[in-house]
Amino acid sequence: MRKSKLLIIDDDEDLRTQMKWALTADYNIYLAEDRQSAIAIINKEQPAVVTLDLGLPPNPAGVEEGFTVLDHILDGYNNTKVIIITGRAEKEHALRAVEKGAYDFFYKPIELDELKVVLRRAFHVFQLEQEQRELRHRLSGDTFEDMIGTSPKMQDVFSTIRKVATTDAPVLITGESGTGKELVARAIHKLSIRRSKPFIPINCGAIPENLIESELFGHEKGTFTGAHAQRKGRFEMAEGGTLFLDEIGDLPLTLQVKLLRFLQEKTIERVGGREQIEVDTRVLAATNRDLEEAMKNATFRGDLYYRLNVVKISLPALRERNADVVLLAKTFLDRYTGEIRKKIKGFSSQAIESIVRYSWPGNVRELENRIKRAVIMSEGKKITPEDLEIESTAGGKECLVLKDAREILEKDLILKAIARNENNLTKAASDLGISRPTLYDLMEKLGIPTK
Ligand SMILES: Nc1ncnc2c1ncn2[C@@H]1O[C@H](COP(=O)(O)OP(=O)(O)OP(=O)(O)O)[C@@H](O)[C@H]1O
Ligand SMILES: [Mg+2]
Questions:
Q1: Which residue, 41, 104, 233, 375, could crosslink 217 as a Cys pair with Cβ 3.0–4.6 Å?
Q2: What predicted TM-score, i.e. pTM, was given to this entire model?
Q3: Ligand 1 site-directed mutation target among 174, 288, 365, most atoms within 8 Å of CB
């Protein structure tokens, strides 16, 4: 078995040697005598456990150097267990270190047998946590066919997708721009028995009105200038598979009639053709427009709407998925630091705060784009709100009424607690030091969705 990594940071050479000698049978040991060498090893080896002497050169009598190392570990490697090695006279510093997040402390002079026990326990805890992280990751159901979502609303979406995938019913996918409508359509196709046949998307809003009919239904040779040959439309290209009509709200009324006929009779007619051609294609449609409104304005046919709306999947706006925002942000950060090959360690806590607080009008697409840009632009180890170009903290309005200020603060703290606890309201309430019913009441008062 590979031995776990232990880093010993101490400026006392004798002590380092003695510890190394005593522990080398159990652990893979690294030694550092000052802050620089310690940080270099931490970055390179990411040890499971670190013993840290707070007093390091150039100021062995102070504790700043040691605390800097501790901060570095807590910031970037917070799974690592840090054991502070300290003199009895410096107990206060040790306690402060534990308060900050160090795992434990141990008094000098070192009793090796005792230290061994403490170390064994630290490694054990590290390992348990590691296993738990892996298990959680495996079981999490955080991702579903390329989609990330732990929020209850997205879990509902996933369960609907699973149910409709096995049918041939048309599905209407609605949601603001950038909420993932196309991803949902692709997921439905991938989970259906049509998966080995084509998935053909067409954006009804992007094709000029005079071309879209032949794009969709195809045309016969010589029907119009330029129609040199017979051509199949997207319906026929999607034979056996799925046709995804994006921006269906932009489909001209005349074509709405043709689409309705297809949905009723499963046949189409090419432009300039007389023949009814049978096609076996499933239709999925998406829109970010309010089709009921369009129906009232007579720009969308009611009969078509009801045909398409047999199953409806409404994607929540990103601001309604508190549990997902940070998870999505981290996923995109990993993706783009990998692609762009930058050594970025994560988000600063202010960046996380601004991500949670921002309203994301462009939804997941905006989040993805902002993070990609931040990774390209960032010059530091952590992404900051400035990199994301999101206004940090409340700022701006300075003459808030006290009551408004309190509500903003309360809402902010609650949203963050909920996000931090992945939508677990019981845990969020306990974080906030209030009971669960009180949290519910507050959420209702502040207009935070409770589901
Ligand atoms: N739940 C999610 N998990 C991971 N990535 C997502 C998720 N939802 C959306 N995305 C990503 O966000 C971007 C936008 O998604 P998509 O194109 O499906 O949105 P849309 O609703 O069709 O947007 P529009 O209305 O502007 O066409 C894509 O890059 C997609 O991969
Ligand atoms: Mg789209």
A1: 233
A2: 0.63
A3: 365
